[in-house]
Structure formats: structure tokens, C-alpha cells
Amino acid sequence: MERWVKRVAVVTGASSGIGEDIAATLVKYGMTVVGMARREDRLKQLEKRLENEKGKFYPRQTDVRIEDEILSDFEWIEQELGPVSVLVNNAGLHSNKALTEENTGKWKDILGVNVLALSICTREALRSMRNHGINDGHIINISSIASQHSTPLPGCSMYAASKRAVMAISEGLRRELALSNSLIRVTTICPGLVATEIIDNSGMGSKLPPNLPILQPADVTKAIIFCLEMPAYCQINDLTLRTVGEDEMKILMTIERIQNEKNQAKVEKAD
Q1: For residue 11, which of 1, 23, 26, 39 is within the disulfide window of CB 3.0 to 4.6 Å?
Q2: pTM confidence score
């Protein structure tokens, strides 16, 4: 990680979970990290926690659904910190309702954060790199195993669609960069279930089997550091993380069994 010391990294969704952990870790490695998120209080707490570390953390209260706020952040970075070398597109939204029950506004938010904001941040980071002659930058997109197959869990249909779009965007961008003889790398990280707020906010937490092995944010961070530490000529395109023995169908069957037991109990109680 020595070659990244004092260089600028941007991390979206930095106020919790994976984003918070990767931002903190990059600061500890000596990078200048700009954390974007809506919850300014959480960003300020992280800034305080990292004030004595090797690098520096800069909080930016940002709603990435709003393009002008993203553009303002990148303009500030350009003026105050210099060119971007690393971008971690981590911010993401999920739903807790079935496709037939969700409203259009929520879908727009999911696509706005998971796809459009990722694309805008990527465009602006690449412009910064190119304008300053940085040819060894790294774009890291946090996708999901949901990009590989959809599940019947509530809210997963549109979420999976957005994460498949992330994979398509990443693949297309790699080819664009290759055709322009750029050495800027693009990596997608596809974790399985991770212990973050998105599980509880989506309603999945209460539906998962007890004592289910689950990834931690630090596990994803280690994968990101691994990618950043690779020699500049080596690109890891896609990296999938899951717990040992993780089986979606087993999880789904367990959830279905629990739900059926609850439904049966309701019927018996009614009788």
C-alpha cells in the first residue's frame, strides 16, 4: 500500500458498514480519504476517531441521488486536495417489499444510488485522473452476489437488477479503458450476506436463520486492500466473497419453513 500513501481516495456510503470500514482502513494506511454520505453526524464521528492516524479523513455530507452534490464534492476535492487516485463506489440502497408491492419512487432511489450515482462518481473520478495524468488509478465497485442470480427474498428483484447493471458498467468501462491504452484498473467486489445496516433496513435480518455465518465489513475491506496491493500491471476484474458453505437455497428453504410455521400457527390460533 506504500504507493497509495498521501494520495486521494473517495469512498461513498462512508457513514456505516463497508464504506465506514474501508474509509478508516485507507486512512490508517496513510491515504487522504474523502467520505461521502448523508449522515453528517456519523461522518464527523469517524473523522474524530481517525484524527491521529497516518492519513486524513474529510467528511462530505452528500446525497448521491443528487448530481449537483456529487459534482460539488469533486470540485471541492480538485481545489482543496488534488487529483483522485482511488474511488470506492460503495453506497447502496435495498428494498424490503416484493416487486408487486413496491412504489416507483423507491425503485428510482435504488437505481439512482446503485447505478446512476456510481456512474457519475466514476465519470468524475476518471476525469480527475486523466486531467492530472494519473494512469495507475483504481475504480472499485461494490456489487453483490445478487448480481449473479435473483432470489425471491423481498426487495431483491430491483436490487439484483441494479447490481447486474454495476457488473455491466464495470465490464464496459474496462474495455473502454483498454481501448484507450489506459492502465487505470476497474474491480467489482461481489459479497454475499454482510453484517451491515442494509440487512435490518431491508427486513431480511428478522427472516434469516439464527447463528447463520455471515461476512463482516472488515472481510470486504481485506478484499479491497488485496486488490489495491496488486502490482499496477495486474487487474482483478471480479472478486466474489461468501462464507464457507453458504448456500442460498438452504437459506431460502429455512426462511420458507419458518414463514410456513408462523402462518400455520396463525391459522391454528384463529381456529
Answers
A1: 23
A2: 0.86
